[in-house]
Amino acid sequence: MIKEFNTQTEVSVRLEALWAVLSKDFVTVAPKVLPNIVKDVQVIEGDGGVGTILIFNFLSDVSPSYQREKITEFDEISHEIGLQVIEGGYLSQGLSYYKTTFQLSAIGEDKTLVNVKISYDHESEIEERVKPTKTSESTLLYLRRLETYLSNGA
Asked: What integer best gives the mean pLDDT of the chain?
């Protein structure tokens, strides 16, 4: 049975700028904001919309070494993007299903509220580090790094 974990954060950047790096430019931005984790991101299939398949290759000291994801939701009007892990990554660590959905809303001219929904399932016991409360920390760290990246004039 698929479970959900929800969290949110405010990011001190304009919605349009954050949406661009989360939905269109992440192939080039992710390795820049997570240089100690992400080696590169490649589009394997698709045009960046629903159905696009990406592979995140991690540095050699990160295990597992990659994570393949599929864009399952993409709505430019509501600023929502969903990424489902389809191979490697969290699926190699005891989860049978893992999806992260970001939904952005402007709260003022230079602030964005990001709602994060993590949907997950597992068939057996999972390690503490892959529980949604822990994986959400990684997601929030990524959003903070994007905030810093954009605030520094990127």
From this structure: 92
- Does residue 133 carry a pLDDT above 80? no
Q: What is the mean pLDDT of residues 23-30?
A: 93
Q: Do 112 and 22 touch, CB atoms closer than 8 A?
A: no
**What is the percentage of the chain residues whose pLDDT exceeds 90?**
76
Q: What is the pLDDT of residue 70?
A: 98
CATH number of the 3-152 domain: 3.30.530.20
Residues 6 or more apart whose CB falls under 8 angstroms from that of 100 comprise 82, 83, 116, 117, 118, 119, 139
**What letter represents residue 149's amino acid?**
Y
- Residue 108's CB: how many other CB atoms inside 10 A? 11
Would you kindly state where each structural domain of the chain is located, as residue ranges?
3-152
Residues in the chain: 154
Q: Which residue has the tokens 């605030």?
A: 151
By the 10 Å C-beta count (0-12 exposed, 13-18 middle, 19+ buried), 16 is classed as exposed
